[in-house]
Amino acid sequence: MNTQDSTETSKTRVVETLKPAKEIILAALATGALASCRKEEPEVIYDINNVQLYGSAAEKDKLKTNEQYVSILFTNLFQTAISSEAAFELNQCLLSIGDQELAREVLISNFFNQQGVQLPAVEEMNADPDSFIIDTYKRFFVRIPSEAEITWVRNFIQSNPYLTPELVYFAFAISNEYLYY
Amino acid sequence: MKRRSFIQRTALTAAGALASPYILPSGRLFSRSGNRSADHVVLVMFAGGVRHQESIGMRYLDDAQIGEPYPGNIMYNMLTGAPPTQKIVYGTGEGGINPIPAILNQSLHQQGTLYSEVTALSTGHYGGLNSILQGASVDAQGLRQRPQKPTIFEYLRRHGGYSASDVWFVGNGIGGSIPLLNHSEHPDYGVKYGANFFAPTVTFHPICEGYLGNGKVYHPENELAPMYQLKAFLDNTFQQFGNSLDALGNTEEEKQNIKTFMDLMYEKTQNGTIALPPVADNGDLYTVGYACEVLQHFKPAFLAVNLTAVDSCHSDFSSYLAALHRADHAVGHLWNYIQSQIPDMAGNTTIIIVPECGRNDEPNAIIDSNGWRAYDHSDLNSLRIFGMMAGPQIDANVTIGSEGSPVGKISDVMLTCADILGIDPQTLIATGLPAEGSASWIN
User: Fold this and answer.
1) Interchain contact A8–B (C-beta under 8 A)
2) pTM for the model
3) Which of B234, B243, B248 lies at the smallest CB-CB distance from A101?
4) How many CB pairs under 8 A join A and B?
5) In this complex, do B237 and A57 lie within 8 Å of one another by their Cβ atoms?
6) Which residue, A90, B87, B238, B316, could crosslink A70 as a Cys pair with Cβ 3.0–4.6 Å?
7) Backbone phi, psi, residue B77, to 5°
């Protein structure tokens, strides 16, 4: 801002002291010379920080607030950020219901009734359950599942024909671990 | 085995089961008192302070405003007495000149017992509500903090074996401590014995309907059952690391019933068919309308509902009179609705009404549009409240105590509710948690 102001002042002073015939050329030269003295603005790059995965669930000991929960849930399901207004309103709605577990279930079932939830296809889940399980643990729990967890969930998926990625996501989203960070 | 000995043994086993202590989910033993005098209790709390002079005193403007010698009863659904004849500002229409007609043919006082002067334990917001629900003194209770001692909801669930959807708290909103009052943080009680709660003017507001009113319906066996199984596995794994989170404990069946109720409320709110009182022009009247819906749907053993509009008295005495008149209208509607629209609860429900605190003897400096002074709540007059109850086995048309001769404490209400619903008050008193000297108003 200061650089720009001084540039404008210098330009004006130079132009005022010279004859009109040479004004344009000199003004252009002066502007070019002054512009070359400008400090280069650093290029702004928007990026996402890498998130460190938890070593295990034991590292999570802090309960998420309602705002944190709905913001993270929304991002996990829609892969886009929730607006601050929606996060505020959702907090109010959740506060107005005594059984928070039930309130979260109702909220998630509403989210799944909206357009835009990013879900893998059932076929993808069934074709490569291990990858699906690892991705789901990373998405919701921000950690890699243990071998025992992978085995149990794989067997569970394979023995429940009605299980879909949506229901798996639902279970993760209402689980106790998901309430902690 | 011969038939006679079989019958004898069966009878003995049954008798033994009835006589032995009831083993609760917690594993602790409590004796059933077996003295339930009603199947349902509805507790109405007036938050924010009701001045004794304008309520039980029936003095309208006569006591509160200098140069306005106009007494009268503006709570004629609850109290017996003639209404004011002049300076009517509490009704409907321009300037509030049209009093709301009475709903009940007989006042609740005529139908029940009035404790005409009861001592409150707190003059502040939420302190009163806490002392009603905890039955305890609340000196160390902070604002926006869970009750420190167990609430009536937890006592009922833990000692009485009532289910989660059998105990309800209907709040007037989510401000302050209201959404925290459905259970305490006491280590022996807490959320797993808490009440279901709605602040219906928030939950069923169009904004929340936008987020919660269009849930996907899942098949209970094919979809929900495996989903909950997977959740249980995830929770068990998490618990192995020492982390667990108690929940309110609605069963899956109860949860589905509550979700059905929510859908019904969104529909009825949209259609304008909520069981509102005849006049519904403030938040309290809407809150009571939804409380009626909770009663109709769940027929709970216990429901507490909180009204709060009278708190406008801090800055607008005329508005306070209107709110007090409407609180009475709300109570009349609630009682009438139970008796006429809920056959399962008619005749076996007890209603208890109590303000959380009174209001000051002297006004503050704020003058309203009628030139009347407003009242806060902080002095000794703010500890003067009343209590009222009507229902099965409650003596009718009885007054206990009188102005200046208080009988009973606000903390008695918790023990009274427990007593009516079959929990021996001595069991609770023996825990040392209720305020010293508290007693049930039954017998």
Assistant:
1) no
2) 0.86
3) B248
4) 144
5) yes
6) A90
7) -75, -30
